[in-house]
Every structure is written in C-alpha cells, then in structure tokens.
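User: Can you predict the 3D structure for this chain?
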Amino acid sequence: MKVQAFILAFALAGTSVYAQELTFAMGSCAELSDHESELIFTQIEAKKPDFFFWLGDNTYYTNGEWNDSIRMAENWRRRHASPPLAQMMQSTSQRAIWDDHDFGPNDADSTYALKGVSAKIFSSVFKETPFSLAEFGDLRWQERRGSVLIIGIDDRTHRGPVGTQVLGIGQLDWISEVLKAHHDAPLVFVAIGSQVLNLYESFENMARYPDERLELLKRCAEFPGQVVFLTGDRHHGEIEEVTFQGKRFIEVCSSPLTSKVFAPSSLEASANTTIRGNPVNQKHFTVIKVSKKKLDIEYCTSKGETIVNASYDL
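Assistant: Here is the predicted structure, written as structure tokens:
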C-alpha cells in the first residue's frame, strides 16, 4: 500500500514542556452498515487510544425517527448493538460532538422542533463527554488533559440560514473565555462538525458563513498556542492549513467511518488551496498523537493500515 507522508515544521509561540503524551482516535459519519464495514471499530480498539472522538453524524436518523423521541432513542440502541462497536464503546473512553444526522433531519438548524429533546438523548448516549447542557442549552464542552486543551463546539443548536451564523455570539464569546482561561496551554483542539479552513463553499462548510468564520478565526488567533480544528461531515478526509493574522491554523478532517465515500468534486479539488497532500477517499479513522515535541496525524484504513502520516514539530 502506498502511504502519503509529509512533515510540516513550525514553532509554537509560548511553548511549554508537555506534561504527558496524549493519543486519541477519531472519525465521523458512522451510518449502520454491513458487518465488514463495522470491523473498523475493532481496528480502532486495537490502537488502544486514550479515548475515541466522535466528530458528528455518529448515527443517522431517518425521516420516521427524527420527529419521534422514542424512535430516536431506539436508533441509538440499534446503532450501538453492532458487536464491534459495542466492544469498542465498552473498552475505550468516548468523547463526542454532533452534526445534522445525529441532531435531527439532514442539514437541520435551530428551527428543528425537537432540538432540546435530541440534546438530552445525545448527552445520555455519550455520558463521559463533559457537556454543560443545563447551563448553556447546547452541547458545547471543554476539557483539559495535561497541557492540551480540547473544546467541543455545537454547530447545530444555533445555526441559522446560510450566510448568517453557525455558532452564535454567545458560543463565540464562550470560546474566547475558555481560550483566555487556558492561555498557558501550548495546544488546543477545537472540534466542530463543519469544515472551517476550506474556503470552497461546499455543502455546510463555514465558508458559506464568511462573517462568522472570520470572527471565529480572529478569536482563535488571540490564543498564544497552536490551534488545530478537528472536523468531519465531508465523507472524505483531508488536512488543511491556513495562515491568518500571522498565525498558522491546522485542520484535520476525518470522514467517513462506515458511511459512503464521496471524493471532492473536480471543481473543489482545483479550487481548494488550503489542502495539504491528497484527500483520503476511502473509509477510515484517524489517530492523533501529541508528545513532547511532535504532533502526529495518522489516517488508517478500515483494516488499520496506514494511508497518510503527517508530522508537525512542536
């Protein structure tokens, strides 16, 4: 198998010694599929990550389910009854954000009538994720693991029509507060269902919400350390890089786990100037490892074989 490999070096402003190594696996778009596709979860478990990070579309509600809370809950039970997934869920700690298909209807936004019910169901499924649903009324969360900060963003509860907002001013202000409170962290992972850095206005990328995208980048640019966005949704994987206000941003998009693969269109492929390397046009998961001096990104096939290795010196 041919493996992409590239090394990208950069200096972190205000770098401090990492207190510990951190390794986690991640992915998105996990529609219940055939048994062979489900075996990807066995390979994830075999990597022995500190936790698995679900990046949205972690199940798929059907038209008859997303307007019925009982059937929504049944969907999750059916999804997690898959033996390889059930075993991985039992042996490995879980963290999660959501996107449209595990929130409600396809491309659902803040007008979805059952969004509050859906949030309660989702938070009950991923109990280890430190949501503050009662405080904020959405599924944002934060966690500090040693010297690494992790922020999970809710990209559905406050989403409006294209061109308006995805996150909302309240969530943007909260992101600023969290980044300020953890200014000593040399690295932050910001997880969101929609791609951030890709400038091609495709599907639900934040490029279709240019004002809020710019505001998010401005606020993240004030953080002294390195910012890495973790995204899903696109049914192909890719690494993006952008320099904004003199600060380098990185994005790791991981999709799909078990759902269908959709490669970027020829138009997007020619227009996307932020991508590094080639897209991953097959089912996969991604392993992220943070050590004292390096950030390693490994895209893996459903059988656990390496597709892409990318390393950033810290």
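Residues 6-19 have pLDDT under 50 and may be disordered. The chain has one domain: 24-277.
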